[in-house]
Design goal:
Blueprint lengths: L5 H5 L16 E7 L5 E7 L1 H5 L3 E5 L24 E2 L5 E7 L2 H9 L2 E6 L6 H6 L8 E5 L2 H7 L2 E9 L11 E6 L5 E5 L4 H12 L6 E5 L14 H14 L3 E4 L2 H7 L6 E9 L5 E13 L5 H10 L9 E10 L13 H19 L3 H8 L18 H11 L2 H14 L3 E14 L8 E8 L5 E5 L8 H13 L6 E3 L2 E2 L14 H28 L7 E3 L2 E3 L6 E3 H10 L5 E7 L4 E3 L4 E3 L3 E14 L5 E11 L6 H19 L6 E2 L2 E2 L17 E7 L23 H14 L7 E2 L4 H9 L7
Parallel strand pairs: 1-12, 8-32, 10-11, 14-15, 18-19, 28-31
Antiparallel strand pairs: 1-5, 2-4, 2-6, 3-5, 7-15, 8-13, 9-10, 9-12, 11-20, 13-14, 16-27, 17-18, 17-24, 21-22, 22-23, 25-26, 27-28, 29-30
Helix pairs in contact: 6-7, 9-10, 10-11, 14-15, 17-18
The structure holds pteridine-2,4(1H,3H)-dione and dioxothiomolybdenum(VI) ion.
Length: 753
């Protein structure tokens, strides 16, 4: 099945927040924001803005009707700053005007005098000052210190990975419309409609049922709208409730890039111990996560980092500590992989470090340490149906890794000004929200009397094709064509208390709920047909838009059967709920089963550098990915391709330049994302020969895991650089921008090892 929507997208017919026909009386909201990273507000003067042409109202913290608090996990984030500011771009006031330009003009005239205080911008420095969000976290198994003492080889070092801007095509935004009795209807570009609903109700000081949130689709999100869509929806809702007029808040690209959260930068100290045979005996790490000025989702992201500390490897002695460090940047947030990729980078860096020290290849060390049947993760969970070794070996064979490596060596021998490198990247990603309660979903399914079907779930379509997958599940279950199924907007009145569409679980959870709802309706129809035909219910089959009984003449079109069932007052609607079974975690002990299953796969990445300029190209990425029985192979292929390019961008070009509280890379002229020209040749093969027993119809979650393949680009470029300059000291710092590559090749400070 193909995605339903691209023909709408390319014709400009898909509706995003800013395309919704503007309701009469619409006001535009623009936030006036802090221009200092930290300080107290000495004077806030909005008088001139209130007099500006077209301005209807200017709201500050005093005007918040309910609680001035939008924190999701920890209540540490005001909607509008009150007394203090903690980052550049923090909203201080909201201007509501007849046009967006007038609102912007007026916002500029607002005086925000700030007595500046020194901010903290570095994660380790923040940790040193005790600026920790939540409790420090630790996972431990075995005895790391004893094991490190015994090891033939021990490497110690630091790995740094950078922030990443989401660059969703649709910027953050919301449109709030007051309805009868001042109820608020919110169109929000959010991955979390129920979180927006709940927090808007909190900010307005009203019961949750007075707020309705509706989402048709998002123009991309990648985690950036899991938590951070809420502020803009809350500002719009507040404006609408105060003025009794519709209010739209949509950020410009520059505002979005300068003010909203990104992937967390991490700075990590590691020690990795191996025996003579290259088997990892011990891994110890301390992760310093730069969280920015508020908790946002940082504690959950930190948790996923710990769960992925050992990457795709089996390690008996592990001790990993993690600190979420409060700094004066916009709160860093969810981004595809959710702390997992950061952990993978550290372990692959340590393994690379060890390979250099031992004179081994990275692949040798990777291969002997991969997770196997019967192994356990440091958090106690057994590896269910591991495919790490199988897919590593199959990838090496099918892509002929030996031949690729031979050609790279040959190329490097023949060429002085160009060098190549190759890297293998095995992945293993845990599927489920690490917060157990989020692993639930609902679906509401109606069959109309003509046999057409309407499905609502908690899943938000953001380009990932979840609606196609849900339609497929409903259609397969009812034995009808997917053309008969319409997937409705995600709306809090149809499916309530939804989890974010996140953690790669959108199709897993909402697909299961859809399957349960469709099965219930099918069972009722089967019972009705069996009464018509005098056969057993189990003898009634649903396929090809038809319903059949055991005898040849016992057949009716799906629509015809439905019409007759309706006349006999059979219920044609069903609401269903799904909760992932068997999840538990004991936080005190650090043990449990946080994930339903894991996703495996292996990528082989080749890169070529220009030894004079430090420029590089990622030549090709070949991927063997564990897809299970895909619900929509073409969509999944697109997801793998998009994810790996996004991962490569994080590791190479994308440099969120942070400078003492300011995000300097705040436009697409100063922040470089991979484009088609930069994107490598990508070959995706699916290991789809095994059904996954733990998700809907044998499928596997697909959104985030392939992002991690992007790490291969870093190590492929690293190898090429070291082929050009053998013996130079190499620092595990990502992204490996062209500037960094150039300095490695030609900089003075690169002392010999
Ligand atoms: N969001 C979340 C996520 O709230 N919990 C998670 O475990 C998660 N994992 C990946 C992406 N988003
Ligand atoms: Mo997410 S990083 O919103 O799955």
């Amino acid at each position: 099945m193909k995605n339903f929507e691209p023909h709408l997208h390319v014709r400009g017919q898909s509706e995003y927040i800013d395309d919704i026909p503007e309701p009469r009386g619409l006001l535009h909201g623009v936030a006036a924001v802090s221009h200092k990273p930290k300080g107290t507000i000495a004077r806030l003067d909005v008088r001139q803005a209130r007099q500006s042409p077209g301005v209807v109202a200017v709201l500050t913290a005093k005007d918040v009707l309910g609680e001035n608090q939008i924190g999701g996990i920890i209540l540490d984030e005001p909607l509008l700053a009150e007394g203090e500011v903690h980052f550049v771009g923090q909203p201080v006031a909201l201007v509501l005007a007849e046009t967006r330009d007038k609102a912007r003009e007026a916002a500029k005239s607002i005086v925000i005098d700030i007595d500046e205080e020194p901010g903290v911008f570095d994660a380790k420095e923040a940790a040193g000052r005790g600026e920790i969000i939540g409790a420090p976290r630790r996972l431990e198994c075995g005895d790391v210190d004893a094991a490190l003492d015994r090891c033939a080889f021990v490497v110690r070092g630091t790995a740094e990975s950078g922030a990443q801007e989401h660059v969703y095509m649709e910027t953050q935004g919301a449109l709030a419309v007051p309805k009868e009795q001042d109820r608020i209807f919110i169109h929000s570009a959010t991955q979390s409609p129920s979180a927006v609903q709940k927090i808007c109700a909190r900010v307005l000081g009203v019961p949750v049922h007075e707020v309705e949130v509706d989402v048709r689709r998002l123009g991309g999100a990648f985690g950036g709208k899991e938590d951070q869509a809420t502020a803009w929806a809350a500002l719009a809702a507040l404006g609408a409730r105060v003025t009794h007029r519709p209010v739209k808040v949509v950020l410009s690209r520059h505002e979005d890039m300068a003010m909203t959260g990104k992937r967390h930068p991490y700075s990590t100290d590691y020690a990795l111990g191996l025996d003579e045979a290259g088997r990892i005996q011990a891994f110890q790490a301390t992760y310093y996560q730069n969280a920015g000025a508020a908790a946002d989702l940082s504690p959950a992201i930190l948790e996923r980092t710990l769960y992925h500390a050992t990457a795709a490897y089996s390690i008996e002695n592990v001790r990993v500590d993690a600190f979420s460090c409060r700094t004066n940047y916009p709160p860093f947030t969810a981004f595809r992989g959710f702390g997992g990729p950061q952990a993978f980078f550290v372990l692959e860096a340590a393994l690379d470090h060890a390979a250099k020290k031992m004179g081994a290849t990275r692949e040798e060390l990777q291969r002997v340490n991969l997770l196997k049947e019967g192994d356990r993760f440091p958090y106690g969970m057994e590896v269910l149906a591991p495919r790490a070794v199988e897919l590593f070996d199959r990838a090496a064979e099918e892509f002929d890794l030996g031949e690729i490596k031979r050609r790279v060596d040959e190329f490097n021998e023949k060429n002085r000004l160009k060098k190549r490198g190759v890297a293998v990247t095995p992945i293993c990603f845990g599927i489920s929200f690490t917060s157990k309660f989020l692993n639930q979903a609902g679906a509401l399914l109606h069959v109309y009397t003509d046999g057409s079907v309407s499905v609502s779930t908690g899943a938000v379509e953001m380009g990932q094709g979840v609606n196609v997958k849900i339609a497929h599940v409903a259609a397969e279950t009812l034995g009808i064509s997917a053309k008969r199924v319409y997937v409705e907007t995600t709306n809090t009145t149809r499916v309530a208390n939804t989890s974010p569409t996140a953690a790669s679980t959108g199709a897993d959870l909402n697909g299961k709920a859809t399957e349960l709802a469709a099965r219930t309706v099918r069972a009722r129809l089967a019972a009705f047909a069996s009464s018509l035909w005098g056969c057993a219910e189990e003898e009634v089959t649903f396929a090809d838009d038809e319903v059949r009984g055991p005898a040849g003449e016992q057949r009716l079109g799906f629509g015809a059967l439905v019409a007759r069932a309706y006349m006999e007052r059979v219920s044609l609607s069903c609401q269903a709920h799904y909760a992932t079974p068997d999840l538990y975690f004991d936080k005190a002990a650090g043990k449990g089963k946080p994930f339903a299953y894991h996703v495996f796969g292996t990528a082989v990445t080749q890169a070529e550098i220009d030894c004079l300029r430090g420029t590089y190209r990622i030549l090709e990425v070949k991927i063997l990915h564990d897809s299970g029985k895909s619900l929509a192979p073409k969509i999944d292929r697109g997801q793998v391709e998009g994810a790996v390019v996004q991962g490569i961008g994080w590791m190479t070009l994308e440099d969120v330049v942070l400078d003492n509280g300011r995000i300097l890379a705040s436009s697409l002229t100063t922040y470089k994302v991979p484009d088609l020209e930069f994107a490598p040749e990508i070959e995706v093969r699916f290991a789809d020969d095994k059904e996954n027993p733990f998700a809907v119809m044998g499928s596997k979650a697909l959104g985030e895991p392939p992002f991690i393949y992007g790490i291969g680009a870093y190590f492929a470029v690293a190898d090429a650089l070291r082929a050009a300059r053998p013996g130079r000291k190499f620092a595990y710092t990502a992204p490996m921008t062209t500037e960094r590559a150039f300095l490695f090749l030609h900089g003075e400070e690169s002392a010999s090892e």
